[in-house]
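Wed. Picked up where I left off yesterday with Pantothenate synthetase. The coffee machine is broken again, so keeping this brief.
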Amino acid sequence: MGALHKGHVSLINIAQQYADVVVCSIFVNPTQFTDPKDLEKYPRPLEHDMQMLREAGCDVVFMPSVNEMYPGPENWHIDLGPAEFLLEGEFRKGHYQGVTQIVKKLFDAVSPDLAFFGQKDFQQVLMIETMVAYFKLPVQIISCPIIRESDGLAMSSRNIHLSETDRKNALVLSRALSYVKDHFAEKSIPDLLKAAKDMISEVAGVELDYFTIANGKTLHPESNKNQSDLVALVAAKVGQTRLIDNMLLN
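Structure written out below (tokens, as returned):
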């Protein structure tokens, strides 16, 4: 959606290893915002974004207007399964319907063989994979690793809204995730969750929405450490900015 950073550039770089032609879309999609104020304040530094894409060697930039993508009223609702209503789906109802609606339009316009999405939006990748299966689209979804600042903060377009104090406080999210990963072998899941939540609650200015250890395929909370594809996911409001992050555990 624009406000590009090194995490987005990493997607371009990975795509260049797989594909002959790399297309990047920039579109702040109104149907996935559940809060009009969030849509209004979403950053749109287009000249900065274009310069980053030129320097990365991106072949095509697809930057349509809202009227081009939504020329008239339309009804969209597909079955994304129970995971749609968990985690982000609980806090941002209808969000993933809007996400899959615009990604389907993007795929229809570009007809890609491969599509690259960042792991930071873990649930989003899962929902897009579900949408691709629903329509039997001939595109392979590739999830790419989270890119972090040197101090561990996951790169995000929303980070520009963080004050200096918020920026320091936000580091507790990656610290809590790293704690869970580092102690996963020796501690139980309930103990890991308690320690991570306690760690976050001790930082003023950070309001936790959720911290969970879940099955990476269903997003249901998981209590069995021997289950494969486990992921720790967190969302919190830091100051006035809501951030998400996650870490693969096994």
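Quick read: The chain has two domains: 6-144, 159-248.
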